Structure formats: structure tokens, C-alpha cells
Amino acid sequence: MSISNLHQNISQIRSRLSEAADRVQRSRDSVKLIAVSKTKPVAAIKRVYETGQRDFGENYVAEAIDKITACESLDICWHFLGPLQSNKTRLVAAHFDWIHSVDRIKVAQRLNDQRPATLPPLNVCLQVNIPAEATKSGVSSETALLELALAVDKMDRLKLRGIMAIPAPTKDPLEQREQFNRIAGLLNIPGLPAGMTELSMGMSSDMEAAIAEGATMVRIGTDIFGARYT
């Protein structure tokens, strides 16, 4: 896929998002589109930025820092989406606006301690993996989610916003909706902090089902940027 197709691709994604929201009588503005630009060049990010897109997601710390530096003159909101090792927390704390993949108190504490005082608190989603899948990161029980949420909520350099999940892949729309419905239900666990309202769920193949079940952020990579460039 060539860079010249990007304007058309994101226009189509925006249409899909709006239609999905309309079907369940939600405002299009209630769903944030995150363009997942991992492994894609800076030129592609700038091309998508031209369309008015401001939220971009990255999974790999070193690659992301290079892109953030190259795009520092642009008013981009950067979302970190991938698993985070403890030795990379300082870079994420200093350069990102959001992190969607916090699943351990140790990582959260390091992010809190390393967030520069000159920046606003780092927006945090907790990654859940319920029911547990061996190949995925995330807290794997409601008890663990509650414990982590209460701990993060006390950290003054972090702002607890909600949860993120990557459900098991399926092409069946009903199964997709069932999984997203279970994820959304986790925000109703008694005792969770009141500020947890964001649901980061849904990607290129299941965006419509996620929006139908309450997603407030969808993470779209392939259907915007394609698998590779020619």
C-alpha cells in the first residue's frame, strides 16, 4: 500500500466509525480514533496528520521516541499501546500523553515517579486479560484489576482513565460483541475509582462491535496504514 492512499483510507475509517456510532445512537464524538502507526514511517504519520488526525498510537519505545522527536512541531497526542518493560518507563513517562497497557503496580509506580513535573499527569488505562489468555498481557482477575486501580488512583502524576483490552480474535460479530460486552462490564466492578470511564477496545477487524458495546477509543492500524508500503 502506498502513502498516497492514506487520505482515502482514513476517510473510509471515519465513515465506518460514524456509521457504527449512528447504529447504536451514539455521538460520533464519543469515540476517539487512534491511528496506530507502529512500524510505519514518519512520512506516513505526517500524511495522516494532514487529514486532521491528532491521536497516534505506538507499541515500541525506541521507534516511537524517534518519531515523536521528528514530529515535535506537530500537535500530536501520543498513545503508548504495547507491553512496557520496567527499564523503558522513563522514556514513556517523559514523551507520551497516554499509556493503555499498565498491568503492574511496579510499572505504574515507576511511571508516576518518572513523569516530569512540567507535564500534566500521564493518562492511564489498565490492560485487562479476562478471561486469561496465555499469550496476552494484562491483569487476569477482577480482584487484581481492583487492586491495581486503587493503587494507581493514589498516584499523583498519573490520571486513571479506564481499561484497555484485546479480546480473542473471531470473525463472528456476535462473538465479538459478547467479548466486548464482558470487557465493558468490568467498569462496573464495585469499588473501582469513579474516574474510570474510558474503554480502549476495538481494532480494524472488530471496530463496529466494540463501538456497539461502548468503546470510547478504537485503535486502528492496518485499515489506515496497511500492512506494508510498496
What does this structure look like?
The chain has an 8-stranded parallel sheet. With 230 residues, it is of the alpha/beta class. The chain has 9 helices and 8 strands. Helix 4 packs across helix 5. Helix 4 (89-95) links the parallel strand 3 and strand 4 (98-102). The protein has one domain: TIM Barrel (Alpha-Beta Barrel), CATH 3.20.20. The longest helix has 18 residues, at 6-23. Pyridoxal 5'-phosphate (PLP)-binding protein, which is involved in PLP homeostasis. Belongs to the pyridoxal phosphate-binding protein YggS/PROSC family. This is Pyridoxal phosphate homeostasis protein. Residues 11-228 form the Alanine racemase N-terminal domain. Keywords: Pyridoxal phosphate.
CATH superfamily: Alanine racemase
CATH class: Alpha Beta
Report Rg. 17 Å
Report helical residue fraction: 25-40%
Largest sheet composition = 8 strands, parallel
How many domains comprise the coordinates?
1
* CATH-defined fold name: TIM Barrel
What is the number of helical segments per DSSP (H or I, 4+ residues)?
9
Low-confidence stretches: none
- In the CATH hierarchy, the architecture is Alpha-Beta Barrel
Task: Going across the biggest sheet, name each strand in turn.
Answer: 7-6-5-4-3-2-1-8
Global morphology: globular
Helices and strands, in N-to-C order? HEHEHEHEHEHEHEHEH
Average per-residue pLDDT, rounded, comes to 94
Percent of residues in beta strands? Answer: 15-25%
Distance between the termini: 6 Å
Number of strands: 8
Q: What structural category arises from helix and sheet content?
A: alpha/beta
